[in-house]
Amino acid sequence: MTLFDISAPGTGRVVGRVVDMTRTEVSETVENLRAAAGEWASTPVRQRVQWLYRFRDWLLDHEDELAEVLQDETGKPWAEANLEIPYIVEAINYYGRLAPQQLRSRTVRRHGLLALGKGHTLHWHPYPVVGIITPWNFPLGLSLLDAVPALLSGATVVIKPSEHTPLTVNAVARGWTAIGAPPVLAVCTGGSTAGGAVVDSVDFIQFTGSSATGRAVAKRAAERLIPYGLELGGKDALIVRADADLQRAANAAVWGAMANAGQMCTSIERVYVHEDVYDRFIALVTAEVGDLRIGHDDKGYRFDIGPLITAAQLEVVRTHVDDALSKGARIAGGEQSVPRPSSPNLYPPVVLVDVDHSMSCMREETFGPVLPVMRISTDAEAIALVNNSRYGLSATIFTADVTLARRMAHRLDVGAVNINDVFANLYTLALPQGGRRESGIGTRNGSGALFKYCRPQAVVTARIHPRREPTWFPYTPLRGALVHRAARLLGARDLVRRLYR
Ligand code: NAD
């Protein structure tokens, strides 16, 4: 058994060790789940809900220690490390309420001639084993947000957390065992080998991560002919119209760009501001950024921005900023106004001006505390720039004219639009969340979240039993004419077509 260390970002302090699982170990884990799958699928939905409710109580009882583990492995400020469990608690309550009603078998209304005399029912059969592969930026939130509906729908679940942040997911899986729940939730730790082995052994794969890895996962899933969902990268934009509440827009832009040190799929990574308010907006965001406190947290609220997850991630950010500066961009307010902490993974947040789409900071995913702001003249120009991207996760519009913003939203080729708000759609489990183009395939949350982990089964029952149906053998002119005439009578919507041919 090979173990590897998990280090706190920035400090390098070893905060845990996990197994680097081999393909064999992963497939054994999945086989164990498969053995438990039948019983879990036939457990009444209300009983599954009760297990999830007990799990919720365990999460709440261990909230602080879980948040500490999460902070250790991610380096997030305490305010952010503390947010993931309430989010999951809400998901358990929300889907727990929906599951018994949504997942029950139901009778479906008949229609058409051939359905006369039949009973129609629709059943939901869970996939035996759902694999969930997740990134490091929200280790718990992104794992359980998919695991909760999958478990409620009756699937067993294996989570493959990021090799950078497996500790919190391991801890909550121990919680599932501690409450005495059936062995239907497992964790496989490791990197791409373990991830690939999960894709190779499960019945449905839900992947969250980069577009490049998502593409590899999709290819492998296609070879196995298993269904998959992909939640991938983004390059989200924020539009500020001239009539916007500028102070709120500026605060939203800075939080949207810098929360989690800019390491969110939905981070605001480019801002398009109307020329009439551009200078005032830049002054506001620069002041806001100047007030941000950067550092390693101490389970308190002393910092707003923590370290980037790895030195490699910091290098990406540095490269994007350097590329922009070399092509004529400037750091608003002057670089020297930004504090420069000593830790290697801390990147001082910057506002970039004089940017354009020739620069990687406007096209590629930066994933760091960088806010590039571009001047625009019209709504049409802003819409075209937002859509000029290979990503299409979400977008944000600030304006006093909400009716116009809703019309603009229809023209934005993205999965979600927030108007006068930022990230608000992420907190709404009732709405689907998903990206377009290279940002993903399929959605999480929304009314289809429980059905996603099930296969529908249609059951049709003959309720009257003549020796043969009119459409069966033998084919005769009389029976053919009768069937046709009856179909026409039912199908046509006017008397002439009903009676004459
Ligand atoms: P990543 O693609 O490097 O890794 C994601 C996961 O895939 C990890 O668990 C990794 O071990 C695993 N993996 C790597 N190679 C694999 C393979 N060949 N087969 C199967 N699994 C494999 O992504 P990351 O760096 O951990 O996360 C950052 C990315 O995630 C960003 O692009 C970000 O935008 C995206 N993200 C998207 C969402 C969303 O909901 N759309 C949310 C958060 C993050």
Summarize the model shown.
The protein is of the alpha/beta class and 501 residues long.
What features would you describe in this structure?
The protein has 501 residues and is of the alpha/beta class. Helices cover 41% and strands 19% of the residues. It contains 17 helices and 20 strands. The chain has a seven-stranded mixed sheet, sandwiched between helices. Strand 8, helix 9 and strand 9 form a beta-alpha-beta unit. Helix 1 packs across helix 8, helix 2 runs antiparallel to helix 5 and helix 5 packs parallel to helix 6. Bound molecules: nicotinamide-adenine-dinucleotide. Nicotinamide-adenine-dinucleotide binds next to helix 8 and helix 9.
How would you classify the quaternary structure? single chain
Cross-sheet strand order for the largest sheet: 12-13-14-11-10-16-17
What structural class do the secondary elements suggest?
alpha/beta
Percent of residues in helices: 40-55%
Biggest sheet character: 7 strands, mixed
Low-confidence stretches: none
Strand content: 15-25%
- Straight-line N-to-C gap: 77 Å
In DSSP terms, counting alpha (H) and pi (I) runs of 4 or more, how many helices?
Answer: 17
Please, what is the average pLDDT?
A: 95
Question: What is the total tally of β strands?
Answer: 20
Round the Cα radius of gyration to an integer and report it: 27 Å
The unique ligands bound to this protein are: nicotinamide-adenine-dinucleotide
The global form is globular
